[in-house]
Fold this sequence. Notes:
Layout: H1 13-16, E1 20-25, H2 31-41, E2 44-49, E3 52-57, H3 59-68, E4 74-83, H4 87-95, E5 108-114, H5 123-142, E6 147-148, E7 155-162, E8 165-171, H6 193-202, H7 205-210, E9 214-217, H8 224-233, H9 257-281, E10 285-289, H10 292-304, E11 311-315, E12 332-336, H11 341-344, H12 347-364, E13 369-374, H13 377-380, E14 389-395, E15 398-406, H14 440-463, E16 467-472, E17 480-485, E18 488-493, H15 502-519, E19 527-535, E20 538-543, E21 555-559, E22 562-566, H16 581-590, E23 595-599, H17 605-612, E24 617-622, H18 625-637, E25 645-649, H19 652-658, E26 663-668, E27 673-674, E28 683-684, H20 685-697, E29 700-710, E30 725-729, E31 747-753
Parallel strand pairs: 5-6, 5-7, 9-10, 9-12, 10-11, 12-13, 18-19, 23-24, 23-26, 24-25, 26-29
Antiparallel strand pairs: 1-3, 1-4, 2-3, 4-8, 7-8, 13-15, 14-15, 16-17, 17-18, 19-20, 21-22, 27-28, 29-31, 30-31
Helix pairs in contact: 3-9, 4-5, 6-8, 14-15, 16-17
Amino acid sequence: MLDNPKKTFMIDTHKANSSQEYFAACPKGLENLLLQELTALGAVDVRETVAGVYFSGETRLLYKTCLWSRLANKILLPLANFSVKDEQSLYDGIANIAWEDHLEVDGTFKVDFIGTTDEIRNTQYGAVRVKDAIVDRFQKHFKARPSIDKQNPDLVINARLSKGKVNVSLDLSGQSLHRRGYRQKQGEAPLKENLASAILVRANWPTIAAQGGFLVDPMCGSGTLLIEGFMIAADIAPGLMRAPYQWGFTRWNQFDEALWTELVSDAKARKEVGLERCRETQFECRGYDLDWRVINAAQNNIERAGLDQWIRVSCRPIDEFVKPTHKVMDTGLLICNPPYGERLGDAKELEPVYFQLGHILREHFIGWQAAVITSNPELSKQIAIRALKRYKFWNGTLAADLVCFTIDPELFYKEVTNLSSDDLLLKATPSKLAIDDLSDGAKMVCNRLLKNKKQLNKWLKKESIDCYRVYDADIPEYSAAIDVYGDYAHIQEYAAPKTVDEEKAKVRFQEIVDGVTVGLALASDHIFVKQRRRNKGKQQYEKTRPSADENRAALVMQEGPAALLVDLWSYLDTGLFLDHRPVRKLIGQMTTGKSFLNLFCYTASATIHAALGGAKKSVSVDMSRTYIDWSKRNFEVNNIDPLQHQLVQQDCLTWLQGCRQGFDVILLDPPSFSNSKKMEAVLDIQRDHVDLIKRSMELLNPNGTLIFSNNLRSFTLHDSALAGYTIENITDKTLDPDYSRNRKIHHCWLIRQQ
C-alpha cells in the first residue's frame, strides 16, 4: 500500500540503465532525416511515423538526444495507450498509471490534451478529467496531491485522443527543442531553427563544411541559417544555450543530475575543440540583407549565440551582392530563403530577384553548391541552372521546396549563358507552345496529362514524390509511357503495330512530344525520348536529343531517404524502375538491423533503401559492369559504406551456387529473359523461376523473407512446385496510384519457410 504522505523518489539504477522507448516529434517532412540523426546518436528500434520517430535507448540517449538533436521538436516518454469509450474510461485509464514514479506528491504539473469524442466534446474537459484522475490517485494513496501550474510546471503530461484511443506521455524536452535560446528578434518570414538545420543537412552542408567550404547567405534575414550552419560546422550542441527551466526532465523523479552534468560538460568540451578548429582554419559565415532592421536583429542573435567572431552580416541588396573577396573562397554553400510570393508579394514581381540570384551564381560561384528555399517551384526556374535535387518541406503551414544546385557551366540553361547585366530582368525560359497551337491529337495527349496529374497531385504532395508515371498508353493511338523526373520528362514509345504506317506513327509520336511540352509545361531541353522504329527488319531505339547529351551528368533524384542517380539520355533504362517504388520502401522497413541480399540488383536502388533503413550488411549481385559502376556511384551519393554493403559483379546463377552465407531478407527480381554471353545458361523466368526461388530460399535465415518479383505480364507462379513454402501475393500492395492504369506492370510475392 502506498501510504507515505510524501514520497522521496530514489533512482532505480537498473531501470535507468535499461532501454526505454521514446517518441521524437518533428515538423512534417523531416521524419526520415530525424530517423537518421537518432540512429547516428545511438538510438535502436528506430521507426518512422507521421511527424515523428519512435526510438529506444537508455537514459544517456534520452539526455543526449535532447541536447544534440538539431531536428526534433519534442522528446516524449510514452506511458500508456488505451481505448476510451467515455469520460469514465478515460479517468480509469489515467488513474491506473503509476504517476508517483514520475511526480512528487507536492510537485506541480500541467495537462496538454488534444482530441474529442461524442462525450468528451472539448479539450478543456478532457484535460480536467485527466487532471482529476492524477490528483485523485495521489489523494487516495498519500492523502495529499500535486498542484496545477500552467506557467512553470514540474511535469507536462501529454494526452492525445484519436479514433477511440488515447496516448499518454510525458514531455521530457520541455519547451520545444527548436528554441535554442539565441533568437529573440526575427525577420518577416522566419525559419524555425530545426527546419533551418534540416535544410542545411539536405543541402549537404555537413560534408561541405568538413571539406573546408564556406557558408554564404545573400538574404539572411534574422541569421538563422548562418547560426545553425556554424553550429553544425563547429560541432556545437544546439541545446547548450537553453536554461535549466526549459528542460522537461530536470524536475522529473527519474532525473539523473550527475549523468546530465557529464553530458553537458562533454558538449562544452566539444564546442571548445570545434571553435579552436574554426580559428585555425579561419572559417566564417557571411550574410547579407537589404533591410537594415533585420540585419540588426541578425547581429543581436549572432552575439547572443556568442558567434560574432565567425559570423559577419551586413546590409546589401541582392543586385549589389558578390562573393566576398577578403579571402579566397573556392568552395562552399550559398543558401538563402528568398521572399515567398504567397506572403510577401506577388510571385511575378519576385522573378527578377531569382533571376538576379541565378546570374550571381553563374558569374561568381563556379564550383560551389547552392540551395534555395521557395514555395513556388516556377520561381526557381528563373535561376536558370539545372537543379540536381529537390526536397519538400513545410515551413509552418506553408509547403516549400528546397532546390539544390551544383554551380557547373554544364548545368546552365543555354538561353542565359551569355546574358549581360543589362538583360537581368529578362525571363530565362525558352519560347513555349500554347495549347491552341497543338494539333487535335496533341491536344488529346495534353488534356489527358493534365487530367492524370490533377488526379495524382494530392498523393504526390502527401508522399513528397518527384518521380512518377503520368501516362501509360492511356490513349491507344498514342502508345507511350511518360515518366516525370522532377523538372524533366522521359518518354518511351511502345512499338507500333505493323498495321500502322510508319510515317503516321512518326506523326503521332511528335504529337506526344508536343502534348508533353504543353501539358507538363517543360522546356524542350528537359524532355527526353526513346523512340522505336523499324529498320531493316530490326528494331532500335534512337534519341531525339543531340549527341552532346551523352556527356551530361546524371541527375540525382530523391526517393524517400534515398538519393538515386538517373540518366534520361544515355540508355534505354533510366536507372530507376518507378513501379518498384513501394517495394523499395518495404525493403527499407523490413531490413532494419538485418542482413540483405539483392539479386539482379540493377543499380542497387533497393540496397540503398535497405542501408539507409538500418540494414546491418548487404550483398548486391549483378553481372553488368555498367550497373555495378552505377551502383557504386549511388553508394557514394548516399555515403554507403562499401565494406558493410558489398557489390559483386557476377552471374547471379553462378553466384548462388557458390554462396555459403545466410540472409534475413532477399530480393529476387530477375529479368524475364536473358541470354547474355556472361551467363552460363539462358534464363527464362517462367520456365526457371521455381529452381531460382528454391536456390534463393536455401540462403534464407530462419524467420527470413524472400521478396520475389518480375515484370513478365503473362507470368504464372507454379504454386504446386513451391508447396513447402508460405507464399503471400502482395502485388496489389506494391502498386502506387501512378500505376493504377497498368496493374500488370509487375508481380510480387513474399515467400517464407513454413
